[in-house]
Every structure is written in C-alpha cells, then in structure tokens.
Design a protein that fits this description.
Elements: H1 21-53, H2 55-60, E1 64-70, E2 81-90, E3 95-110, E4 113-118, E5 129-131, E6 136-139, E7 144-146, E8 165-166, E9 168-171, E10 174-179
The structure holds FE2/S2 (inorganic) cluster.
C-alpha cells in the first residue's frame, strides 16, 4: 500500500516556500474594488431618497413667493402688523393646500412700499413680538429688542444678526413676499 502525499499548495521543488497568497490578495483587491464601486453608486441614491422623503429638508430650501395680504391691510402710519404666511405644502406623497408655513411682520414705509421681516428670532428661533408701547420688536426668550427695520437695539442682545428681512413685491395692490426661513445662531443669513 503506497502512501501518496497530499497535494500541497506550497512550492517546495525550488527550495522556496511560496504559497498561493498572491491569488488571495488578488481576490481581496477585486472584492474591495466592487464594494467601493457599489458604495460610490449607492451613496448619491441614498441622499436623493432621504431628501425626497424628508419634506422639511425639501421645503426648507429656496424662497417661495407667497401672496400674504392686500396693501390696505397694512397700517399706513408705519405700524407693523403680523400676518401668517399660508401656502400649499407638498411632501413625497401628499399635497397640503393652504397650510401655514411661517409668519411675517409687514410695515408700510411709503404709499406703496412695504418691508417684511420673518417673525423668527435669529438668535435661537423664538417668536418675536411687537412692543407697541416702545415701538420696537421684542424677543421674549432672551429679552432682545430690535428696531422697526429689524436691526438689533440692545447691545447686550445675544442675537448674532438683525431680524431676517424678506423681499417684497406689490402687484395690483397685493403684497407678495419671497418667504424663507434662515438658520438661527449664525452671523450670516443662511437659508434653512
Ligand atoms: S431666541 Fe430671541 S433673543 Fe434668544
């Protein structure tokens, strides 16, 4: 009975002890290339899907021109008045008609001139009130006062910037506002 030696992957005939490691290395390299390639393809798809499924992220970008009020509804004497901003909102599956998406202060600065300020405080997102007695805006969260044009009145205010002004268009006696929210807590106005 002869005992045939088991086949070996080692190369012993030339005296060196090389094995099949290069082959395995090649296999791992190919696998890694495929995995990296798949990740490169799937990552942008994942981002696109997350944006599609997240209505807040989608609606947060870019301004929307919304009809807010008629010119006659804003006091001629320059007193600011608060208005809800109502618009259709859409997410991946549903449309929500006439939904409040924010609020603005409108103030007449001339016969047919209007300024708009977002009511959200640029410090930490509180809702700014109008203080009729002092004719200024007041954020009750940290007692910050802003002038009627939105600039910071109180030097000790923690707000990093003035209230956020918004573009206004008057069309046939109607006030349209390019509504947009901005990030709180930053010196620059960065769309949220
Ligand atoms: S949130 Fe308005 S001052 Fe802090």
């Amino acid at each position: 009975m002869s005992h045939e030696p088991e086949p070996s992957h080692a190369h012993t005939h030339c005296g060196c002890a090389t094995t099949d490691r290069p082959g395995r290395r090649e296999f791992f390299k190919k696998t890694l290339t495929i995995v990296v390639g798949m990740a490169a393809i799937l990552a942008p798809i994942g981002v696109a899907i997350s944006v599609l499924l997240d209505p807040l992220r989608r609606s947060g970008k870019g301004e929307r021109l919304v009809r807010v009020a008629s010119l006659n509804a804003v006091p001629i004497d320059g007193t600011p008045r608060k208005f809800a901003v109502v618009a259709d909102r859409t997410d991946a599956w549903n449309k929500y008609p006439n939904t409040p998406i924010g609020a603005v202060y409108l103030r007449r600065t001339g016969d047919d001139k209007v300024e708009a300020l977002n009511v959200v405080c640029p410090h930490a997102g509180g809702f700014v009130d109008y203080n009729a007695a002092n004719k200024c805006f007041l954020c009750p969260l940290h007692n910050s006062e802003f002038s009627l044009d939105g600039t910071i009145l109180d030097p000790k205010s923690p707000a990093p910037r003035a209230m956020d002004s918004l573009k206004v268009e008057i069309r046939d006696g109607e006030i349209w506002v390019a509504f947009q929210n901005f990030r709180a807590g930053t010196r620059d106005k960065i769309p949220a």
